[in-house]
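Case study B.
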Amino acid sequence: MKKQLETQVLIVGAGSTGLSIARELSKYKVDVTVVEKNIDVALGVVKSSLGLIFSSYGLANANSLILKSSVTPDLSPSELFEPDTLKTRLGREGFDAFPALAEELDIEFRMFRELIIGRDEPDFRSLDLVEEICRGMNVGFERLDREGIQAYEPHISKDYTRGLTYYGDEGQIYPWEYSIALAENARDNGVRIMLLTEIKGITPLSGGFMVDTTSGAIKTKFIINAGGGYADKIAEMAEVRDFGLLFIGNQFHIIDKRFGGMVNTIVETAFRPGVAEMIKPTLSGNILLAGSGLVESKGLEDTATKAELMKQDLASMQRIFPGIPKGGIITSYYAVSAFNTRDPENHLLEVSRGNANFLNAVVRMPGMGFTPAMSRYMVELLANQGLELTTKADFNPYRKRIPRVSELSDEERKGVIAKDPRYGHIICRCEEVSEGEIVEAIKRGARSVVGVKYRTRAGMGRCQRGFCGPRVLEILARELDIPMTEVTMKGGLSRVLLYRSKELLNAGG
Amino acid sequence: MVSHDIDVVVIGAGPAGLAAAIKAKEAGLDNVCIIERGEHLGGLLDQCIHNGFGLVYFSEDLTGPEYGQRFIEKANDSGVESLLKSMVVKIFPDRRVAISNEKGFTYLSPKAIVLAMGCRERSREALLIPGKRPAGVLTAGTAQRYVNVNGYIPGKEVVILGSGDVGMIMARRLTLEGVEVKAVVEILPYVGGLIRNEVQCLHDFDIPILLGHTIVEVHGSERVEAVTIAKVDKEWKPIAGTERTIECDTLLMSAGLIPENELSRMAGVELDSVTGGPVVDSSMETSISGIFAGGNVVHVNDLVDNVTWEGEAAGVSAAAFAVGKAPPRKSKVHLKAGENIRYIVPQTVIAGEEVNLSMRVREPAEKVRIKVGDILTKGLRAVKPSEMVKVAISSKEWENPNGEICELVVSCENRR
Amino acid sequence: MPEQEIICTGCPLGCRVTLEFGDNGDMKSLTGNQCKEGKEYVTAEFKSPVRIFTATVLVKGGGRLLTVRTDKPVPKNALKELMFAIARVRVEQPIKAGQVIIPNVLGTGANVIATGSIPKLASID
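Model:
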């Protein structure tokens, strides 16, 4: 008989939404369990998030324009600027809280100026619209001519003759680093995180639920549905489904950090329906190109990069920054963003109408920046539903990152190596990641190649695991005490190596 | 323990680095040290278990490990020092290097440096091949390490993209481990590597070679399930309607080698945009005084024997520089790539000096004449991009009644 | 008359040489080569195509592989059988480079010898 676990709050989904709520709850004497079907946290929608923490105009833009442009092409400033909605309020609160949170969690957080640029009449009209919105929001801005644009971005094509920058830089984080840090801190503060745990069924009981998972049965009073791209299916299992999900896809490319100095700001071309081009510096010194039309997608499984979009994206890149060569792209990916169909403009942060103990935290993009505020909001909802919140005296908000030798001073580096020589043995040449960091990542929960990648950056460089790949596999196998054939890229069937030497030859007998 | 009074630091203990270090030590220097990021000397030779090494240098047909062992023994015998599991993470134009290893983080200030970091492979991601990111897509060299060093086979139904030598070698190797290699897919109308490999790795095992084709999509979410190939037109663009899907569980990439020059860039060394490696003169010195380079870091070679010779030249020069006996730099003659020549190494030579030129042609051709300006002509039966052409210029050829030469155009013309 | 095409690997030309041979396998004529060395190579390749065989062999105690080769070329058509024969071998540490692992393998007259060495008590990693 499978073990039965009892918990007070069961959070479904270990993305930034679920983990943010988990960490918030861990400030109280509440038994919290997070279940995640993947081999690691942050492997769902969140891992391809741009990691932008929006304020002011950026928030309005991301909140409104992107979705409206793909789903409903009509635009007017009044439709775009939503000053008093929940999402705007939480967005601003989250943005204000983020710097302090980033320090507590010891994650990267930097501010970047945003630049919106145009080169023809439709662009210029769009820029006028942006100006109107900024005025309406009381956000300071500056209209730029060609010289003005060049002053910010000397490598931008001179075809861009008009632009706008607004005052209120945007924050940027690594979405996976944030999620991982939330998970570590939540765990430190008593939250139970169960990976490789998929929900098979939810049975409402009086005053709660019995949840059947691949890791056994869990009895819980409350369920928080932070199931991301599967949120509708989770709601269905609990018999409270009153929304569906619609997915919008986008293709992204990472450009070699060799060219990193060419882009200084978050550059967006003036808005057109169905197209959202963005080129921005990343925290790692690379450049990220988010090109292409935003198109409706079938779902989370739609992660294949597409040839026709490649062409379009390369054209975008070369049109905006002609100096970045095609050969500068080191990797590409396709990712989807989920929107609920009941109220696609908004998040569903609510007690489900069908069950007072089932709460939805169905989040749309932008869904990163508002998490500090969203999680407080969700915890308040729980309190209103009868969850007793007694503050923990020993809540520890601090989490320390894995030391990154490439960023330490020479003296610090020597010190770290003296304590653990493995920090001196470099495994990933492109990103300068040491064995010590990889071993620590595994200690902190990495069980797969992507787990190591997201905790250390090993494998994210220009050679794309050409050099470090086998070495990371050797270390994973050694630390997890499993044969190399059992190591996976990202869990499930994604084993890297299928057979041992001579196994195929000796298969006959 | 490595003395901090280093004469020459050699970065990389592959065939180029070993050759350079041996020559530097043989020149009589006290402290010559190889910095190697792997656990053994020999670089990639360890995993190249096939034969074909040393045919010219030793007049013997050796395997990679055997070829490497000759130089490892010589290096040990001559007193070359080495730091293993050590990575040069920083390099400065003044030749200081920062090295990270389990013992700590150290700076060395050698009198001369030889860059011998070799090359890396082009990834699927760099080729922008559409599809998801399933497990089972590896570069051929990485697969070679798994098979020959770790003892694992990536999959049992393999498609190989690119008919470079590494890919062909792995086609044979995998077949001899019981794997079905379903096809080698090559975008050009001819095989990219040596003919010897085409015959002994592909024809010998009836492995289909699909010339003029490329891969347009990789299928599979968690693991590779198939690839879709298509014919390409003269501009190497896929032709709609020619798509065909091949089921497989592994895709090996053998679509080009790229000299690994992160450190060269960091030092501020001038790079050649065609070779991807440092611009060097006939003494294998880069644009930075006292920094030399040899082997695949300069340009992708076809035979390890040539890599050894280049490494030796770099080592000899580095040693001369370290003791202040570098020959006075006379004015350089620039070599320019003319008709059907892709590149020439070294990029500059000294008028009057003997030098060996290595070059690659752009297109295959038969009955050709290699011309080095007006000073030398060499007839060749056939040339192919995959087979490096070597032309020796002796001091006699330089005798030129027309006065000073500053530039020589190297070309490959059809003979009348 | 039966024909066979052999590609000469002597130089970058890669001449495709056509050989005609009689019913008892003896070579009658040869066309397509452009030099004497090519003719010699192709003739030898036709009469007795041989290859050096290289592989890895499993080592008892696991963890390391031994790289091996045949010290002489072996018939091309023996390669597949050789690969199966090698697959069944487990060698004992230590091994010195050059050591004979399988003498006169499959009666070919060639020995399978080690091309690398495995010192005693090699660590498993």
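The radius of gyration of chain C is 19 Å. The remaining cases will be described in the next quarterly update.
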